[in-house]
Amino acid sequence: MLAICRIDDIPAGESVRFDAHVPIAVFNADGEFYAVDDTCSHQDASLSDGFLEGCFVECPLHAALFDLRTGMPSCLPAKRPIRTHPVSVHEGWIYVHVIRQEEVA
Question: What's the number of domains the chain is made of?
Fold first, then answer.
């Protein structure tokens, strides 16, 4: 688990980018925190720069939309999901368990 930041550091509707073995984006969707790989599966764009609406983030490059809960795309041009990572909050801190690719296989 990686300590990312304090919960107050990510206002509702905002995100932060964290560099682990791959860049991770952490989103505050109305008080629920979600972590995903920061790179769009369609093209190399940072999702932390995207637009958050509810539990969905829209890629700033070509408007692909991803569900932060599952990583699944809900519209083109993205066809492949993005990897999600478990998030926990403890004593005001946000922690992310970064899942490595080999853990997914």
Answer: 1
